[in-house]
Amino acid sequence: MRLWNAVACASVLCGLMVLSGCSWTADTPTAVTQETSTRTEIDKTGTSVTMPSHPKRVVILNTANIDMYLAVEGTIVGRMDAASLTGELQEKVKDIPSVGNTYNPDVEKIISLHPDLVIGMNIANHIKLREALTSANIPLYINDLDSFEDVNRSLQLFGELTNHPDISKVQIEKINTVFSDYQGKIKDKPHPKTLLLLGTPGNLNVSTDHSFSGKLLDTLGADNIGKYMKSEAPYVPLSLEFIQEQNPERIIFVVMYPDPSIKESFIKEMQSNPAWQHVQAVETGQIHYVPGGLFALNPGTRITQTLELMYKALYE
Fold this sequence. Notes:
Blueprint: H1 2-19, E1 38-42, E2 48-52, E3 58-60, H2 63-71, E4 78-79, H3 87-93, E5 100-101, E6 104-105, H4 107-112, E7 117-121, H5 124-127, H6 130-135, E8 140-143, H7 148-161, H8 165-185, E9 193-200, E10 203-207, H9 212-219, E11 223-224, E12 235-237, H10 240-246, E13 250-255, H11 260-272, H12 274-277, H13 280-283, E14 287-291, H14 292-295, H15 303-315
Helix pairs in contact: 2-7, 7-8, 8-15
């Protein structure tokens, strides 16, 4: 009888375990856990940044990074003010909370959105966010946006973060195709001495080969006279004496604001200042005006438009 009772009890216990979903192999977990995998990247500042492999709540602090992240079908929960975004990007992010101006982000607003990754660019007001964000266990990745190559590298990284590597591959191939086309076009072209100016009349700066636009000039075969100023800075104040010495064949003026009076003021300055009169580009009318949104900083996927405008300014 005792043996029968023991067998019966064991049978009941096994039945209860089956009904409750238990198993004798209790060391095998059955619950689905949230993904906690991470990856580590070295950012522009040389900082080792550990971030989620596929972050879900991303805040981005500048236009180019937003452009590229959305281009690979990523989603963001916070962004900078829309004033500096293009019309198409403004529409895409209109319902996403702002965390302040690109050059003055509000760290409290950023933290309040509970991001698992913040992406910024290499400026002091983004870098200084690191201490507060680190205290809140939020990784900050400062992305390098200094060159054409940085666009493709960023698209690849963002494609991996969003788990859309196939989409980033397509975007990269599109850009490389356009770039290759222009490389073919300039193969037998001369290398025009070119001055690239940025700013407003009375406050003009020369783009060196350490700036995004200066590097792009070299990529398209131009002889960027800014590199002869031998400065490590991306932009240096204009020196008319230097311009006269170099005597550029082309001048590309980056118009920072969509205000016709800026262009008009620059034309008047060249016409009234004798120092400009004998510069070859002025004598031949080879002065070209391009938008700041495509030239002042890396424009992200819109770099194809930048290549088109720069090629026309240099060779047409």
